[in-house]
Amino acid sequence: MPDPILQTRGLNAHYGDFQALYDVELEVGEGEVLAIIGANGAGKTTLMRSITGLLTNGAAQIHYRGQDISRLRADEVAELGLAMVPEGRQLFPSLSVKENLMIGAQVGRAGPWDLKAVYDLFPILEERKDQASTSLSGGQQQMVAIGRALMANPDLILFDEISLGLAPIIIKDIYEALPGIIGEGMSAIIVEQDITKALSVSSRVYCLQEGRVSLESASETVSREDISRAYFGIE
Amino acid sequence: MEWLNAIVQGTLLGGLYALFAAGLSLIFGVMRLVNIAHGDLIVLAAYLGLTVTTATGMHPMAALVIVVPAMALIGYALQRGLLNQTLGDDILPPLLVTFGLSVIIQNGLLEVYTADPQTLNAGSLETASVAVGGVTLGILPLLTFGIAIAVIWGLQWTFYHTALGRAFRAVSDNQDIAQLMGLNRRHIFGLAMALALGVTAIAGILLGIRTSFDPSIGGGRLIFGFEAVIIGGLGNLWGTLIGGVILGVAQTIGAKIDPGWQVLAGHIAFLVILAVRPNGLFPRVSG
Fold it and tell me: How confident is the model at residue B114 (pLDDT cuts 50, 70, 90)?
């Protein structure tokens, strides 16, 4: 396995008195695509919020390229080259499509992704660039959300539930576009309910269950039985 | 002709009210903060103008060069040092803290400048006028109205055509996601408050040239500002200008009927509009 770009060590996360993550140990290699699966409430989104700095963590629990990022604010984490496509897309409603994309470039990192590159990837966005982001279809909004994250030229990109609420045909399109997006040396974490899709694009998979890692395996060799056991906790 | 005169004078007065309101509207729009101390900050700006003009002998309009950046700096420090800590899901802490701030500013001004009414001496600008048709227009009210239009145009342009404005709107839409995009909301809020108090500085100086002021008048300016914002519709800057004009015209017409009715007439116009159009005349279309 290549050097890890991201590592969590005994990661715990809390919402008030409620503990959502317990001692999560996770590694993403440079250029690796990792899938994280798990039922609703297993802690997947909490894990994403912890990594990106939206949740405050204890010290020394999250390392990015050897640097402890556990206590950094989300904007500081973003500047290090970590971007997220958030669950439910969460575009800025008062911004046009183009402005949403430009906000993504706010971190000011150099790289191959700019407006032109995003428009080449999703030509429909160029046609709609001056429209309000809320006027787009769900799939087009997802393209904006992906483009917005790419505009930051991240080294590690997190996709949180990108197929949620989208039509199957759209999901297929987006997953077909994914290798082209991640292919350029970027590492990725894909959080997904759709296990088949998650396994098809990733090299390794982690399963979360009630805030703990219940499975870690290579995506190619993992068996259905292992997954159901890790997913539902049925022995 | 007397009525026409009242309407024209009221319209020009509305420019001043729009300047009171613009900063209030901006702050609410970006961070959902209702700043109870806004009126007192206007008065503070007037006093800063007084200090600058008496110390240097500058014309009050020239003193803007010093007072505007000074107020902007105060705004940024106030936001980063105090107000950011009050922002959250609960709307009550910022109300209480800015209310306290209002009391502190008033008493601080009393301590430093005493309760004596003061004015900013602008020389001939205070009385100069031009006759248009049968109506005599003061140069100062005309200038105030022109500045109000320029300020609102400038704010509007900043909001919709600059990276800063884009950041304001993004943070206003969704603070967490904006933070993920590398925007530190605490800094962005600081910049918004700096911009708002820069506008407040202009309003304070123009107020100080127009009328006498003392440390206690902030509350009244806050009410006029609020009314202009609400009449025009929250989050709509041009609406705020129209709100200011409606308030100004109602006041001058009220004063025409009976001088004691000036302020009351403005409040009545506000109440009527609030009853008929609770969201104001030009509410921002929600996204």
Answer: very high
A183 pLDDT more than 80:
no
Element (H, E) at A64: strand A62-64
Q: Six-digit token pair at A111?
A: 């790289």
Is the CB of A117 inside 8 Å of chain B's CB atoms? Answer: no
| DSSP SS3 for A218 | strand
Residues of B in Cβ contact (< 8 Å) with A73: 179, 184
Mention every residue, 6+ apart, whose C-beta is less than 8 A from residue A187: A5, A6, A28, A29, A30, A31, A32, A33, A34, A155, A156, A157
Cα B100 from Cα B93, distance rounded (Å): 11
Cβ(B44)–Cβ(B213) under 8 Å? no
Interface test with B, best of A79, A103, A107, A158 (most B CBs within 10 A): A103
Instruction: Dig out the tokens for A158 from the structure.
Output: 């997190």
B181/A78 touch (CB, cutoff 8 Å), yes or no: yes
B47-86 pLDDT, tens digit each: 999 999 999 999 999 999 999 999 999 999 999 999 999 9
Residue showing tokens 């006028």: B129
Residues contacting residue A181 through CB under 8 Å, at least 6 positions apart: A121, A146, A150, A157
Query: What per-residue confidence (pLDDT) applies to B140?
Result: 96
Is the CB of residue B172 less than 8 Å away from at least one CB of chain A? yes
> Is A75 within 8 Å of B177 when comparing Cβ atoms?
no
Q: Is the pLDDT of residue B286 over 70?
A: no
Tokens standing for B115? 């309760």
Share of chain A above pLDDT 90, in %: 71
